[in-house]
Amino acid sequence: MPAVAQKTIRPALFLDRDGVLNVDHGYVSRWADFAWIPGARAVIGAFNRAGWRVLVITNQSGIGRGYYAEADMHALHQAMVDDLATEGLRIDAFYHCPHHPEALLEVYRHPDPPDRKPNPGMLLRAMADWPTDRASSFMVGDRESDLEAARRAGVEGLLFPGGDLLAFLKAEGRLP
């Protein structure tokens, strides 16, 4: 949740994490294993400068599966924030879902978690926390479940095929 309530309605760029912001090596949970996707930092900067909110929407079933702790994920997100801050860039907030129908840890087991994409829970919470111009906003994901979550939340979804995120959004005509 954001530290400061934001009342102004603005467009938001919703980004999946693994495969969109960082190279997906499978259950990335440590800064030492993290690598930015080419163009990701430039995209964040472009949307920051244009006054858009940048919100990360990420399934994190590795927590529920017992591969890493929620604290590990938070530490990784803080490292991302710190790394971006060296260039004056920011992610406004992270939303994550540690739940999974087959989670090993009972606390994270749910038959159909409302926040787990393709369900729209994380996007809906983000839009409640950060008043959003849905018509201008969109989600970038690398899986159909990301696009389905966006559709259910009432925002456009773009399927990122990999490669350079900046070049992809430029080709889609979606840079601000």
List the strand order in the largest sheet.
Answer: 3-2-1-4-5
Largest sheet: 5 strands, parallel
Q: Give the structural class.
A: alpha/beta
Overall body shape = globular
Which CATH architecture would you pick?
3-Layer(aba) Sandwich
Highest CATH level, the class: Alpha Beta
Average of per-residue pLDDT values: 95
Beta content: 5-15%
Please report the total strand number as a whole number: 5
Number of helical stretches of at least 4 residues: 6
Query: Could you give the order of the helices and strands?
Result: EHEHHEHEHEH
What does this structure look like?
The protein has about 180 residues and is of the alpha/beta class. The chain has one domain (about 10-165): HAD superfamily/HAD-like (Rossmann fold), CATH 3.40.50.1000. It has helices at about 40-50, 60-65, 70-85, 120-130, 145-155, 165-170, and strands at about 10-15, 55-60, 95, 140, 155-160. It has a five-stranded parallel sheet with strand order 3-2-1-4-5. The chain starts with 11 loop residues before the first strand and ends in a 5-residue tail after the last helix. The mean pLDDT is about 95.
